Amino acid sequence: MPLPDVIPFIGLGWSDVLFLLLGGVVLAAAFGVVFGRDIIKSGLFLILTLGALAGIYVMLGAAIVAGAQVLVYIGAISVLILFAIMLTQSKVAPVKLAFQTQVAPAALAAVLLAVLFGLAFGSTDWKSTVFTDTPAATGTAPVAAALFGPYLLAFEIASVLILAAVIGGLYLAMEPKADDVGEELP
Amino acid sequence: MSQIAGHLEPYLVLSGMLFAIGSFGFLARRNAISMLMSIELMLNAVNLAALALGAFIPSLAGQGAAFALLIIAVAAAEATVGLAIVIAIFRNRKTPLVDEYDTMRQ
Amino acid sequence: MITAETLVEVGTLPSYAPLLLLLPLAGFAFTAAVGRRLGKLAHLVPLAAIVATWAMAMSLAIPALTGGLGEAGASMPLFTWIASGDLSFGLGLHVDALTGALLLVVTTVGALVHLYSVGYMSHDDSYWRFFAYLNLFMFSMLLLVLADNLLVVFAAWELVGLSSYLLIGFWYTKTAPGLAAKKAFITNRVGDVGFALGLMGLVVVFGSLDIHTVLAGVEAGALAGPAATVIALLIFCGAVGKSAQFPLHVWLPDAMEGPTPVSALIHAATMVNAGVYLVARMSPLFAASHDAMLIVAAIGIFTAIFAASIAFTQTDIKRVLAFSTLSQLGYMFAALGVGAWIPAIFHLITHGFFKGLLFLGSGSVIHAVDGEQEMTKMGGLWRKIPITYATMLIGTVAIAGLPPLAGFWSKDEILGEAFKFGFTWVWLVGMVVAGMTAFYMFRLMGLTFWGKSRVHDESHVHESPWTMTVPLIILAVPSIAIGAALGFPFANGVLVNGLEPIFHSASTMLEHEHEAWTLFGIDGLLMLASVTVASVGTVIGVRLFRSDSNEFLSSVTKRLQPLYDGSRNRWYFDDLNDLVFVRFGRKVADALWWFDRRVVDGTVNGVATLTSSGGRGLRQIQTGRVQNYALGIAFGLAAIAAAYLVIAG
After folding, report:
1. Does the beta carbon of C558 lie under 8 angstroms from any beta carbon of chain B?
2. CB of C416 within 8 A of CB of C523?
3. Which of residues 13-32 of B touch A (CB under 8 A)?
4. Residues of C in contact with A116 (CB under 8 A)
5. Residue C488 to residues A99, B85, C57: CA-CA distances in angstroms?
6. Do β-strands C74-84 and C87-95 pair in parallel, antiparallel, or remain unpaired?
7. What digits encode the pLDDT tens for the residues C547-596?
8. What end-to-end distance do the CA atoms of chain A give, in Å?
9. Which of B54, B1, B68 minimizes the C-alpha distance to A129?
10. Domain ranges across chain B
11. Which fold has domain B9-105?
């Protein structure tokens, strides 16, 4: 039996429901990242957020970006973060207060930003440039054409940047050698 | 047809809220690594916005995705270096809490 | 700017004229440089310089007075001193009959004082310094008299004040001379402020301070009415200070702290006459304003009676002479004020000689009694120091105005012209003062020379050396004769003829007519009146003080005790000055100091405190924590975005 076009009782299409579901997960998990007491939990919530976002990326028709998201963000960066949490666990860190003293102004700033974004998006006239339809999967070809076309320089620089970051990260995180008592910078 | 998922605005609203949450976490958490995780949230919000615009604006067909890929690459590099710094500081200060990194105070 | 278009033909001075200034200056420079090493011979160069100056001055003054230099005199422009934009002030010499009269007194008395000082100051360690200062003073005074530009006159005015300061405070190691010197200088300065303002006024009106230009402009009517009054009175301020008229008279009695030759030279014969010279020289300016003339006369005659009343009770011999000088100067200004220009100058000359004589004589007396200046410790000296006594007696008769000595001629002319020009009140007060003068001068003679000796050590009293007595004798001659020599025949004498062209324009402006002199008319009556008054004063003075203190005198003193005390204390004027300026001024200064400390400094310190506490407060923002800074960034971003949204739609 084919699925009905519109879900009964709610009156929303399947894509809408999917979007609401994924969007809800994203937001809830984000709240979990930010408000989590235990930092490991925050890290795990981050992974959840990133995963849900990958789903939304697929909905937008950019499967390759979703793939990159999962591979890089969840598979590498989140693991990296978990390792770092492990390495920086401190016995003296108080468990009780996870928030700064400036939490109230921070909340205010965040709310302000959200309001401003809402206003900005709402007051823009999108109609003329935007088509309203579920976006089709665009495939990899246009992306590749863009990456190796106008964005070639950015692509190359990004690779250099990653190289530099790797080297820098290695150096920074190295254990100081035993006979180096206080490095003297030239 | 789809009333929500077929329009641009919901994606942008979602992106904005995600960004706001990320910035709140960045400003309010004490642990340095929590701050970095919040930064990742913000970057992903930007990614979402770029992809949404790329999908709904015909003249930007592949560019939104290309932009998002590059952001992911940069985010990876930034996370690497940032975490290395946090580990290095942790070795000196024995604490990951940023409000204890205040030797530059007046 | 007024330029003099009608200049009377002015002759040229002989080429040695600048030596009149250069010789005393060279004498000063030489003695100041090497005088210390010359010891007791330090007087040779200065004395020679002054004698040479005297000779040259006489060669110029006598022709000037007798008309040999022409009506407008002779001049010699030397160089331009200041040339700035439109203004130009030059230094030049000018000699006419008025200059000649001043030269006569200044150089003669000056030379004699130099000779006198050889004897008087012979025991002093700073012998050389005294002569250096004396020469400096002579240079300054001659510059004042010879200059043809009022700015140079002002400069010489100040130089003369400086020399006076140096000489009054000659014995600076003692307190009193130092204080007296300061008092003299400061009081002079008060007058000089007015003088300077008057000069500035002249520059504004005429654009120049050249005396010819200014006087020609005034005669042409360029300056009249209130402007003339103001400028004349301002210039008179300088004269009030320099010639010690009320209320700036306070420095002259104290100036007696200086050595007696200084008192004779500066405070009797030369410097104090500078004010009289100034007013006489600017006579057209004063004649242009009747109000100014009135004030000059009033101040002059008031000073005359004020000072004479104080001289009644003073017991220091030099102080009596100081107040006498004040009184006679008052006469001169009264004469100038009523328009009797020539008698004023006449009196200047005669007074210079006999007051110089009296001061030098008093110095001889002081020398004889080993430095004692109080007349209560003198007496019966006439046998011991006959030359001094005789010459002083001559001087006293001269000042009392008894004919035929010098004082009678000049004083009688002043009083006569005052009466004839209609200033009866000046004449009346002048008469009273003449009687008072005779009285207190013979009181001085009595207390000093007559009666029983009250001297501390009688055997030690001795006559002075020839260097001191010869000048006395020399000065006695003009005290006797110069009145007749210059003033006879009446209204047609040498001086009248010589000075008449100088004051011609001033007299014309005052519309004074020259009536013929009538012996058996008003002039004879006035002469008789003045002689009578002088004689009465003399007789009373002689009778009361001929022998020692008698009961009549003490009973009168007791009955008039308040008047006696007031006179003794110089009518408390010095105390008034002290109260108003010193004490009250001190309170004002303290108040201002409080204000400066609290308000002004407080404001400055307050600003500094404000800045530092503001900085301390702002420093709280720098927490060193990245998140705080990030919060600032977030708020800033929100603000900019909001602003953009509002502005862009």
Report:
1. no
2. yes
3. 13-25, 27-32
4. 638, 641-642, 645
5. 120, 120, 24
6. antiparallel
7. 766 677 777 777 788 888 888 888 888 888 888 888 888 999 999 999 88
8. 76
9. B54
10. 9-105
11. Helix Hairpins (1.10.287)
